[in-house]
Amino acid sequence: DDAKQKLLSKIGQVLESVETVSDTDFSLNMLSKMIGSNSRYVSQVINETYGKNFNALLGETRVKQACLRLRDDATYGHMTIEAIALDLGFKSRSNFVTVFKRVTGLTPSEYKKIGKEIG
Questions:
Q1: Residues 6+ apart with CB under 8 A from 117
Q2: 51: alpha, beta or left? (left if phi > 0; alpha if psi -120 to 50)
Q3: Got the DSSP string for 76-100?
Q4: Between vectors from CA 75 to CA 88 and to CA 26, what angle results, nearest 5°?
Q5: SS (H, E, C) 18-32
Q6: pLDDT tens by residue, the chain, 119 residues
Q7: 115 and which of 30, 71, 99, 102 could share a cystine (Cβ 3.0–4.6 Å)?
Q8: Contact (CB, 8 A) for 96 and 90
């Protein structure tokens, strides 16, 4: 329905803000406050629409950003994988590697190497 579509649009806009999703404290509650809805409903809409929970969606969103950075040597080549992970809101390198591998099927190092090979 219309209200759900508006909510989804707001969720999408927030998730597109790299600065927002890269905050280590970014949470379902924070998202809900930002879009003016309650966290239970936001969680339900995310689960129904994306087929995953908020944390999985947030992890994927951050990993997509990490992929862009791992391929962009000109801008991020001076940063370690760990620095990129921390910059995107992951609390540790191990957590980042786990989520990255779940999303892409590769470790960040493997991804970076392949990215260089395909250019």
A1: none
A2: left
A3: HTTS-HHHHHHHTT-S-HHHHHHHH
A4: 15
A5: HHHHCCCCCCHHHHH
A6: 898 999 999 999 999 999 999 999 999 999 999 999 999 999 999 999 999 999 999 999 999 999 999 999 999 999 999 999 999 999 999 999 999 999 999 999 999 998 777 65
A7: 71
A8: yes
